[in-house]
Amino acid sequence: LDQCIKYGGQKAVFRGSVGDQRVVVKIYDAALFDELFREMAAYERLSQVPGVPKYFGVFGPVECAWAALIVQDAGVPVSWDSLDPDERNSVFKIALNIHRAGVHHGDLAPRNVVRDHNEGSIAIIDFGHASLKHTCHDHCAELLSLQQDLQML
Question: Does the pTM of the predicted model rise above 0.90?
Answer without folding.
Answer: yes
